[in-house]
Amino acid sequence: MQGWHTTFLGMRGLPRDISDFEMKAFFTFDGAERDAINARRGDSHKLGLALHIGFLRMSGRLLGAFRVIPVALWRHLGNELGIAAPEVASLRAMYERGRTLFDHQQVACTVLGFQWMSEHQRRSLVRELRDEVARCADRDQLLVRARQWLYKNKLVIVHERAIRTLIAAALAQLEVETGTAIAASVDPATLDRWRASVSELRPDGQTQQSWLWAAPAKHSTRQISEVLERIDLLYTLDVHKHLADIPDLILRRYARRLVSRPPSAGAKIKEPARTVEVACFLRYCLFTTTDQLILMVQRRIADLWRQAAADVPATVNWAAMYKTLLGELVALSAQGAVPDAELRARL
């Protein structure tokens, strides 16, 4: 399957502006497909089956009877099959029996080798999505990946809601596995300290969760000292000793999920989600705060360098002056005899 084909996967209806290239790519039929089409009785049934085969090849889904069919596509199918194009807007207007729609959908699946997803295949898709969520945080991209997997495995693409349910199951599976890994590598006493630390109040009234997440406004000495204080707190909690095997993408996902709700709501989150969010939040804060400190120190050094350079008076470039003097002496010697008065003035 080529990359441009991904755009059509999961579509419920035909695009109104379908191009000639797309009609030739999806609605041109080989020998076995033509045999199945020609076996239908009546021109309307041949056109209907051809439409179902092409749409299934294009989108990986079954075409409903109420979907509008572009006139250009009817014309293309008529030319492809040597049949006059019908003057109808949908399949419902062309079929005399409701059963015909179901029959054509089944024949299209048989001809192209598609079938409905079984429970075993559903679990396989969840495992595939589980591996994908460790590398991708965008649910829309996961939706595209699921459709690609279904189409590649010749499975009819189910509706979006069902796929998003599978994505949620994959995310839940990842959360459980991450929580198990954290519980196995971090002792319970440390986890209790982590959970308590994020909800503690600072002297200024804000929680440490908000304080750790807030980005410094400037790179002054006071701001640098505050960032160093954050790093000292995270080292005191031994955050640097744990979670080294968890990818940055997962750390960022759960850290952002934690800060997306008020700190007061954190205690209501059930396990293992609470532990996963807190642990990933602290580890991610250690990374980002360290990066912020490096950037702030670099900017502070640049400021001090500019200030020091501005306070230093301009120095004499003796090397350039000496080079100019030698050049002038060479020019004088090349002139030959020069009056004494002129020579003294030039020297």
List its traits:
flat, 347 residues, 3 domains, single chain, mainly alpha
Description:
This protein has 347 residues and is mostly helical. 65% of the residues lie in helices and 0% in strands. It contains 16 helices and no strands. Helix 7 packs across helix 9. The longest helix is centred in the C-terminal third of the chain and has 39 residues, at 273-311. The model has no long low-confidence stretch (mean pLDDT 88).
Write the SSE topology.
Blueprint: H1 20-26, H2 31-38, H3 43-59, H4 71-81, H5 91-94, H6 98-112, H7 119-133, H8 139-152, H9 160-185, H10 188-199, H11 208-213, H12 221-236, H13 248-259, H14 273-311, H15 318-334, H16 340-346
Note the run of SSEs as H and E: HHHHHHHHHHHHHHHH
Helix fraction?
55-70%
The proportion of strand residues reads under 5%
Question: What gyration radius follows from the Cα positions, in whole Å?
Answer: 36 Å
Instruction: Give the mean pLDDT.
Output: 88
Distance between the termini: 85 Å
Query: What's the overall geometry?
Result: flat
When the domains are counted, the total is 3
Largest sheet: none
The total of beta strands comes to 0
Number of helices: 16
Structural class: mainly alpha
Low-confidence stretches: none
